[in-house]
Amino acid sequence: MQEDAHAGTPDFDTLWYLQAGWFEAPNIHRQGWSGVSRIPIADSSNAAGFHAFLKRQQNFMRRTWRHPVIGVPTFRCEYAMLLHLQQHGIPVPVPLFFSEKKLDGNTNAVLLTVELQGYVSLDAVLAWLSAEEWPLSRQRKLIKSIARTVATLHAHKVQHRALYPKHIFIREQPQGEFDSVLIDLEKARFKWFSWQCTLHDLTTLNRDTPQLGLRQRLYFLHQYYQVGKLGQFSRWMAQRITSRTLRKQKH
Fold this sequence. Notes:
By secondary structure, the protein is an alpha+beta fold. It has two domains: 5-114, 2-Layer Sandwich (Phosphorylase Kinase, domain 1), CATH 3.30.200; 120-250, Transferase(Phosphotransferase), domain 1 (Orthogonal Bundle). Helix content is 37%, strand content 28%. It has seven helices and 13 strands. The strands form four sheets. Strands 1, 2, 3, 4, 7 and 8 form a six-stranded mixed beta sheet that branches. A three-stranded antiparallel beta sheet has the order 9-11-12. Strands 5-6 form a two-stranded antiparallel sheet.
């Protein structure tokens, strides 16, 4: 039986020892692991409560310039990035709680975020797009939403570093517009120049969206750069993205 957590009083021990099955199989890396559970949250202001994703990890570290040898828990980096992006109006999951603790020589960390209600992954949306004949206007609304969200991320010089369709979540509004939210930001990093973010992330997204045709990809770039016609620099970037995509597909 799965226990409820309480939105108003989270603490490390309660969340670390909470009995909850894995939503995704834990990721094993070197001497550490990292896993995700979906848990109900009891909320005094809402009788029905809500669900959240509880991420727990042990010795799952990332080196930083301040901690170049041992590193820090990746969830610490993700939590800081979520707060930063929230402050700048970039759509990401709402963080509820983060904490880390040393236990028996191990570095353990927990991160709790609110579940996205009514959203599905871009993976699922692209499958529907392939199976159904979406009107051009609906396709373009979807592409515009994703392009503008990613462009805003890059305008703040943040590189996602894992911009796969499964890490972009989509919700269609009743009036036909789309909302896009970026998840899994534990690998995200700041860069000196926004073009570095563009080149890396759009290469990944371009490679992993084979369902999209050339016209759809071109429309994405128009919306990403918010131009009616690509200029010299944006055309050069498009060529670089295409060539990098082809190289990665060969490996």
